[in-house]
Amino acid sequence: MENEYFLRVRNVSKTFPSVKALDNVSFSVKTGEVHALIGENGAGKSTLIKILAGVYEPDPGAHIEIEGEVIGKLNPITSVRHGISIIFQDFSLFANLTVAENIAISSSLQQGSTLVDWKNMRQIARKAIDYLGVDIPLDSRLGNLSIAKQQLVAIARSLASNAKMIIMDEPTSALSKGEVDILFKIIRNLQADGISVVFVSHKLEELFEVCETFTILRDGKYIGDYPAREMDNSKLISLMVGRSVSYDRLEAKAIGETILEVQNLTKAGNFKDISFQLHRGEILGITGLVGSGRTEMVHALFGLNKPDNGTILLNGSPVDFATPSDAVAAGIAFVPENRALEGLVLRQNMRDNITLAVLDQLTNSLKLIDQKRLLNEAEKWIKEINVRPAVPDMPAGQFSGGNAQRIVIGKWLATHPKILIIDEPTNGIDVGAKAEIHRLMRQLADDGMAIIMISSELPEVLAISDRVLVMRRGRINGEFMGSQINSESIMNKAFLADNKVG
Amino acid sequence: MKEWMKTKEFMILMIVIAVFLIISIGNPTAFLTTGNIFDIVKSNLVLAIAAMGMLPIILTGGIDVSVGALMGVASVMSAYFMIHVSDNIALGFLAGALSGILFGAVNGAFIAFMKMPPIVATLGTLSIYQGLMNFITNGNWITNIPAGFVEFGKTYLFDLVPVQFIFLIVMVALTWWLLKYTYWGRGVFAIGGNIISAERIGFNVKRLQFMLYMFIGFVSGIAGVVRTSIFGQVDPKVFTGFELKVIGAVVVGGASTSGGYGSVLGTLLGVVLMGLLENGMILLKIPTFWQKIFIGSVILFAVTADILRAKRAEAKRIKVDVA
Lengths: 502, 323
Description:
The complex is a heterodimer.
Chain A: E1 5-15, E2 20-30, E3 34-38, H1 45-52, E4 63-66, E5 69-71, H2 76-81, E6 84-87, H3 99-110, H4 118-132, H5 147-160, E7 165-169, H6 177-192, E8 196-200, H7 204-210, E9 213-218, E10 221-227, H8 233-241, E11 258-267, E12 271-279, E13 283-288, H9 294-301, E14 309-314, E15 317-319, H10 324-329, E16 332-335, H11 339-343, H12 350-354, H13 371-385, H14 401-413, E17 419-423, H15 431-446, E18 450-454, H16 458-464, E19 467-472, E20 475-481, H17 487-495
Chain B: H1 8-26, H2 28-31, H3 34-59, H4 67-84, H5 89-113, H6 118-137, H7 147-153, E1 156-157, E2 161-162, H8 163-181, H9 183-193, H10 195-200, H11 205-231, H12 242-252, H13 264-283, H14 288-316
Antiparallel strand pairs in B: 1-2
């Protein structure tokens, strides 16, 4: 007796220390169905997948049922035994091993053997590759294959471990149109053989080609299941963006002259034809999906990623930063996304962190660091950015997320930058502290600074951007100003190629 | 070009042949004699055995700088065992192997379970094992090795092959087999390729790492006792700095220091190359300090070539699917 549903999941929640990533989510996949799981960045898709993979444990009370059997607890091994196979975006393959070994190694490991049976491994791999009907030499080293072929190897590996449901995370992100067609043909074959496929993707157009059902998540909550035939692009987008959170909009006082101009900036495999202007007193929001090239692009403005082509004009004259210190000397500051790792020396105290970028200016006549000047300088910025508690000797790692972010901002303000680039300014900070960081940024802009803010959080982009650039697949796909800035139009530009709405 | 001609091993073989030719031309009378070639083989045999223990570690991206000390302490232990407990040859080897495993396990515990960086853990134990060795021997040579063992060390098979050569062949074959035909060996490659993926597909990374450092302990133990059998005595100071040769041979043999790439054949070629260079420089009467500078440069050159290759590959990696 075959089950109609391969997987049925109810009441799944997942709480992390600072945030509830999933809140009472349901997710059901029929046997032999191609199912799309969609939502914005941070909607909870990855968390849900990792629970199914047995990597994360859900909060108590979750109900997971596979082929009619209620599953108490999943771990990476049992998840595979139950036929769930996940192809992560990075494929989790081994570039240094052959195609055959990549395909067969996990299923052979699952059998618990100690000795390698190479003949059997090749047979397993051969069978999987033949099923896919593709031509990939079994003895090639995986690292020598194109991304598309590596993807096929990843699918072959899932088949080799007898997967009954294959979850693909952004499977088409690095494939050409022709390669996507091959992938879809394979997916239809899998479907015909009763294997379910779950697609996690941002490419709505492609999803309509293969998927029968859409499950939408938003802010960690389950929005609903929708049959593909009743849906279109604009309906999906409005379901994904319906908002629960919003911040007060903070308008610019006055926008001044152009300070930075970027012309046709291009780097192969990173971004293409990027042109925009940045003005004094302005907050320029750059948004788009994760992987759209936003971070790679601003890295180019800070000497961290050398562009192939294009011009960067600072105050009208061209600049070419070889290293970040060139950019700092030119008056640019960069607050990275991962402030714990890249922005702060967590074990050092706040005083030392804030003065870290200007130590060379705080020396005495012997060119040694003048502790008194250092403390004065630190206290000046602690007051300016309003860190709580205002204790210069407290280790940076002990401050709350919002205050830690203030310290990073303070460190860069000490260099008196004219341009501040800030990547995901409020990532991992609680809601109240977010609004305060927004006010701080607005105040800095009002004092004449030009700010570039990369953000995946639409409410944040809506609240403080004077202008918004939307990136999609390495290009600027849309630009909005003032009253044009609204979530629907930004999401359309983030998800869809030009003029393909509805 | 044929596929095998593109391999690192082939490139190293070409270099070995070139070095061989240069030395032959430079000093044909001294170099191309059976005696000299035998000397090269005999003096590098121990290095080749020890390199078999180092290869799997470097394949995972780890390192063991205590290898020389492991060899030293194991040869001292086995010598004392043979002098004071039993002069049985097999038991003497067993004593060396077991003490190597024991001291290797200490390294492994710090690295696998305490998550200590391998260079720090083994640097610490390097000092401890050296101190221990000096404490036991008072820094003196052990010369009263039982006669039976000394005789055994002088045995030739078919009047031609030194008995130590058998140990080399067995250890090389064992390492090759472990790496190729056991899931432990495939796990070594998997960890070196992508440690997160290796964990995801079910390798027990901790246990595997722990066993790696026990393995090099075992191999070093055998290598140490083999050395005793060649010289008929134990010089506790001779192992100081031996780690440079072992790591150098593996790296020059094409193993990537970031893990994932390398082979038994390449490592053997690396040993041959290092041995030829050393012997050649002596025969060509190059001063010792130049020899040291040259050997160091060869190691740095090999690592640089490997890093540049990795950098080029990274630069070509596509980060964003640009429309």
